[in-house]
C-alpha cells in the first residue's frame, strides 16, 4: 500500500512539473504582447529543459545522501519561485529566462529525479513499467496546463498572471506531494551502480551508447514539442486546433512512457534502436499531416508516443546495466544530454522557421538526428557485443 501511495504522489509531482511541455501555448501570446521573436520565446523552453537536465546529476547525488523527500520539497519551492519571478518580469525576456528557465528548470530537475529513483526501489521487478507510470504524469502534464492556460488567455488574462497562478498552485502541489516520498527500509535490489566513480562511468561504452540515444531522441522530440503549436498555425490551422495539438502530443507522450516501459522490460536493449527508428519515421509524417486538423492531431499524438520512449527506455537500461540504485546516481548523467538537446532542439526549430517561414527544414533536421542516433547506437551496441565475446 505504501508503494502505491508513493507512486500516486510521484505522478502528481510529475503532472505539475510536466506542464513545462505546454510552453508552446504561451509562445504566440509572448510574441504578440511583448514583442518576442519565435526563437526568443522558444529559447525559454530550451533553457528550462537545459537547467532541468543539467541539475539532475547534483539532485541525484543529494537525494541519495539526504533522501528523496527533502530534495523533492526543495524542487517544489524552486519551481514555484521560478514562475513567480517570471510573473513579475513586466515582459523582460531576461527575467523570464532567469525565473522559468533557470530557477524553475532547476526545480524541475530536483523534483523529477526523486520520484523516479524512489519508485524503482519499491518495484524492482518492473523497472521499465513502473518508470513509465511514474513519469507518465510528466508526459501528460501538458494536457492540463495547456487547456487551462488557453482558457484563461481566451478570457483576456495576461500570460504573466498565468505564470503567477502556476507558481502558487503547482509549486504547492509538488511540495505537499514530496512530503510522502520515502525509500523502503527493507528491500532487495542491486546496488552495482552505487559506487561507480564519474571518471569510470565516462569510460564505459554502454554509458555513451545511452547518452547518444538520449540526445538524438530528445532532440528530435523537443524540436517538435517546442514548436508544435506554431507548426499547426503556420500550416493554416486554427488557434484552437494548434492548442489541442499540445494535448494530443501530451496524450501520446504519457501513453508512450507506459507502453515503451513494458517493451523495455520484455525485450531489453533492442528497444533503444526501435524507439529511434520509430521517432524518425513519425516525425517525417508531421508536415504533410498538418494540412488537415484530424491528421495533424493524430500525427502530434504518434510523435508524442515516440518521444515518451526516451524517458523510460534509458532509465530502464541504466537499471539493467548498473543496478536500480543507479537510476538516482548514474541516470542523471545520461539525462544531462537531454538538457543539451533542450538547449539546441527547440531553438534550432524556431530559428529555422524565422529564416524560412515554414517548418519543413526543421522537421527534416529532427528526422535526420533521430536516424543518426539509430545508426550510432547500433554500431556502439555491436562493438559492445564484440568486446564482451573476446
Kindly describe this structure.
The chain is an all-alpha fold and 390 residues long. The protein has one domain (2-184, 193-380): MFS general substrate transporter like domains (Growth Hormone, Chain: A, Up-down Bundle), CATH 1.20.1250.20. 82% of the residues lie in helices and 0% in strands. It is built from 17 helices and no strands. It has helices spanning 2-17, 27-34, 38-66, 68-87, 93-122, 127-154, 159-178, 198-202, 205-225, 228-234, 239-267, 270-289, 293-308, 313-322, 326-329, 331-356, 360-389. Helix 9 packs parallel to helix 16 (331-356). The radius of gyration is 19 Å and the shape is globular.
Core attributes:
mainly alpha, Growth Hormone, Chain: A, 17 helices
User: In terms of per-residue confidence, which ranges show pLDDT below 50 for 5 or more consecutive residues?
Assistant: 187-194
What is the CATH C-level name? Mainly Alpha
Report the structural category: mainly alpha
- First-residue to last-residue Cα separation: 47 Å
Q: Give the % helix.
A: over 70%
Corresponding CATH superfamily: MFS general substrate transporter like domains
What is CATH's topology name? Growth Hormone, Chain: A
Major sheet characteristics:
none
| Mean pLDDT across residues | 85
The fraction of residues in strands falls at under 5%
Number of helices: 17
Classify the oligomer.
single chain
Q: What is the number of E strands?
A: 0
Amino acid at each position: 500500500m505504501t508503494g502505491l501511495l508513493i507512486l500516486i504522489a510521484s505522478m502528481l509531482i510529475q503532472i505539475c512539473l510536466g506542464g513545462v511541455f505546454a510552453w508552446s501555448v504561451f509562445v504566440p501570446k509572448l510574441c504578440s504582447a511583448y514583442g518576442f521573436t519565435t526563437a526568443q520565446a522558444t529559447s525559454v523552453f530550451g533553457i528550462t529543459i537545459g537547467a532541468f537536465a543539467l541539475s539532475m546529476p547534483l539532485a541525484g547525488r543529494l537525494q541519495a545522501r539526504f533522501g528523496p523527500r527533502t530534495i523533492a520539497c526543495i524542487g517544489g519551492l524552486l519551481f514555484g519561485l521560478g514562475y513567480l519571478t517570471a510573473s513579475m518580469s513586466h515582459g523582460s525576456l531576461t527575467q523570464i529566462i532567469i525565473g522559468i528557465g533557470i530557477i524553475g528548470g532547476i526545480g524541475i530537475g530536483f523534483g523529477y529525479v526523486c520520484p523516479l529513483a524512489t519508485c524503482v526501489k519499491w518495484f524492482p521487478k518492473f523497472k521499465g513499467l513502473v518508470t513509465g507510470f511514474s513519469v507518465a504524469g510528466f508526459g501528460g502534464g501538458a494536457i492540463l496546463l495547456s487547456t487551462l492556460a488557453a482558457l484563461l488567455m481566451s478570457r483576456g488574462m495576461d500570460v504573466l498572471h498565468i505564470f503567477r497562478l502556476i507558481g502558487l498552485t503547482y509549486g504547492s502541489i509538488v511540495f505537499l506531494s514530496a512530503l510522502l516520498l520515502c525509500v523502503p527500509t527493507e528491500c532487495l535490489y542491486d546496488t552495482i551502480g552505487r559506487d561507480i566513480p564519474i571518471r569510470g562511468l565516462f569510460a564505459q561504452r554502454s554509458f555513451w551508447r545511452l547518452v547518444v540515444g538520449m540526445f538524438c531522441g530528445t532532440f528530435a522530440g523537443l524540436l517538435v514539442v517546442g514548436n508544435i503549436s506554431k507548426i499547426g498555425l503556420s500550416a493554416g490551422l486554427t488557434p484552437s486546433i494548434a492548442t489541442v495539438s499540445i494535448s494530443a502530443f501530451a496524450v501520446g507522450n504519457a501513453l508512450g512512457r507506459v507502453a515503451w516501459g513494458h517493451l523495455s522490460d520484455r525485450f531489453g536493449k533492442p528497444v533503444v534502436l526501435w524507439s529511434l527508428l520509430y521517432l524518425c519515421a513519425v516525425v517525417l509524417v508531421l508536415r504533410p499531416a498538418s494540412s488537415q486538423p484530424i491528421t495533424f492531431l493524430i500525427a502530434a499524438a504518434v510523435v508524442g508516443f515516440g518521444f515518451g520512449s526516451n524517458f523510460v527506455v534509458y532509465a530502464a537500461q541504466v537499471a539493467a546495466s548498473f543496478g536500480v540504485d543507479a537510476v538516482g546516481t548514474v541516470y542523471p548523467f545520461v539525462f544531462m544530454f537531454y538538457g543539451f538537446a533542450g538547449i539546441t532542439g527547440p531553438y534550432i526549430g524556431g530559428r529555422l522557421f524565422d529564416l524560412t517561414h515554414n517548418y519543413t527544414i526543421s522537421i527534416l533536421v529532427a528526422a535526420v538526428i533521430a536516424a543518426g542516433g539509430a545508426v550510432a547506437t547500433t554500431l556502439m551496441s555491436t562493438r559492445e557485443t564484440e568486446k564482451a565475446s573476446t
